[in-house]
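#structure-requests
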Amino acid sequence: MFLVSRTARVRTRGWAAVVCLTMSMAVVAQSAPPSLETSSALERAPPVLVTALREVWARNPAAQAAEAQLALATAKADAAGRPIYNPELDINAENADVDTRSVGISQTIDWSGKRDARQTAASAEIRAAEAELDGTRQRIALDWLRGFTGFQVATEQAALGARRVGLLEQFSSLAERRFRAGDIPVLERDLAVLATQEARAQQAGLIAEQAKARQILIGVGGRSAALPPLPRSLPPAVDDAALDSSRLAALPALRRAQAETEAAQARVSMAERDRKADPTFSLTGGRVRNGPFNDRVIGVAVKIPLFVRNSYSAEVTAARSNVDVAAASQRDLALRAGAEAEQTGESYNALREAWLAWENSRVPSADERAVLLQKLWEAGEISASDYLVQLKQSLDTELTAAGLRARVWQAWTDWLAASGGVAAWLGSADITSTNSGELPR
């Protein structure tokens, strides 16, 4: 056990008073109600994020597949708008007791309007494909934003972990020197070494989490070395009361469900019109030779199918059942969308208030606390275990705050997805991927 002079005790009591005053100020600041305003509330996404998302859309295979599906639906609609029946040419020649030579042409008439019904169904399928493309792009954007947020925060946490390792290595070196000088017992020296080893192991875990977050980001948008910074200021608090039904109806999933319901209704009309027979009109002209007689002949024929053995009523029943399924699925999606929008809005507001409380608390940084704690430890006012406990609390609080920041942004992306606000936040209702080049590695 070592002795401390009276002057040193007075000086250390002064440092202790400083620490207590600092901590009390932090507690008072944390107990104060947080402000709900940020320094510059984001009404729209930063342009760098929009540019990055365009590049992600250009490279993502899922977006390319959705674009191909839209092209497929457009081609099918073009095919559905063309006439159903082509004319038929009939050439007949017969040599017998009576020689016959004839040429005829026949045409089946779309008497019941099957072409119009197919066009209606194809138009609905185009709207469904457009909604699927918008939904795919929004899903990619949200996945990328979540991965981007996770990677940026994981990088920040890895940097905080590196600071923790540096501070504890510095403390361990100082403890080794003081142990050799006989100022501290071996237990305090060993405690410092163990804390350093623990910090190194935790740092390895943070680096692994950073690598995992980067891999998730690469899986969505490809490799990129020039990521934009994560905005420090948060979007404004959301107001669920201002969320009307028209905005929810604009969700890609609901638009797709609506289009699929309309397509199912159009298929009912198709099935009903397929039950109606379309007549075939034929016109034939030719020549008949019978010995010395040579006569010209002209024939007109009408053929009408008779749906006797199969009236195709079962197809109409099946099509109507499909409408019931599509309509029920649409109502189910609408109910779920409203509940999810309300839940994600409340989650975002709660996490946002917690983050703003941390921002406004003015808690001293871990580096500042480390300087004060080291002086108190060197003066003998606190033990090594007290030093490590308080330093660990400061570092863990900063790591937790960084994780809270990630959760705030992820809650914001969840609310954008649930409320249909992705296009508005990105600043355009129809953002297309115009840049097909790859970002630098």
